[in-house]
Amino acid sequence: MASFSRAVCSSSLVLFFLFLSFSEARDHLVGGKSDSWKVPSSESDSLNHWAEKSRFQIGDSLVWKFDASKDSVLQVTKRDYVTCNTSSPIETYTDGNTKVKLERSGPYYFISGAEGHCEKGQKVIIVVMSEKHRHFMGVSPAPSPAEVEGPAVAPTSSAVNLKGSFLVALGALLGFLMM
Ligand SMILES: *[C@@H]1O[C@H](CO)[C@@H](O)[C@H](O)[C@H]1NC(C)=O
């Protein structure tokens, strides 16, 4: 029994620190490089290609670096994203060193404010993982923006979260108490 408790305790501790490192809020440089906010040269170079490989959680931030005299970032509705309509953005970011905090789960739509750039593919959908769909220990690839039908549809991905950390902390505590 004692060795079982010790095993539970030590593995709980390992998991606890693992979860701590996972649940930190992160900054995501959109496109992965400082010059990524531009018309993509090919489909595989597209920003959505990058976004599909990334995992976004509530509390994370998106960061854009661009020449503020030539470009901007517009947060728009899904409809304006699809049609590249720059006339009534939800938010406009023009400072060239833009940081946007992701406060909710679901899709965010961004397009370039530079004339003609959105039509040439300078646009990105960021899908923030849903809190209620996260599962303890669950790890799965980020949902593809193409699978997202609209704001009402929550992405069905899972991830480690803060709640998981607390559970593991509790487990570690119990492990100590049982020793
Ligand atoms: C762009 O959006 C505005 C405001 O929603 C609308 O009035 C306009 O007709 C749209 N333009 C196009 C080309 O769809």
Distance from N terminus to C terminus (CA atoms, Å) equals 9 Å
CATH topology: Immunoglobulin-like
Strand content: 15-25%
Largest sheet: 4 strands, antiparallel
The CATH class is identified as: Mainly Beta
- The overall average pLDDT, rounded, is 79
The SSE string, one letter per element, is HEHEEHEEEEH
Assigned CATH superfamily: Cupredoxins -  blue copper proteins
Number of strands: 7
Low-confidence stretches: 147-162
Question: Mind telling me the C-alpha Rg?
Answer: 20 Å
Q: Which cofactors or ions or other ligands sit in this model?
A: 2-acetamido-2-deoxy-beta-D-glucopyranose
Assembly annotation: single chain
> What is the domain tally?
1
Helix content range of the residues, please? 25-40%
From the spread of the alpha carbons, the general shape counts as: elongated
Individual helix count: 4
Strand order of the largest sheet: 4-3-6-7
* Structural class estimated from helices and strands: alpha+beta
Keywords:
four-stranded antiparallel β-sheet, single chain, elongated, three-stranded mixed β-sheet, 4 helices, 28% helix, Immunoglobulin-like, 179 residues
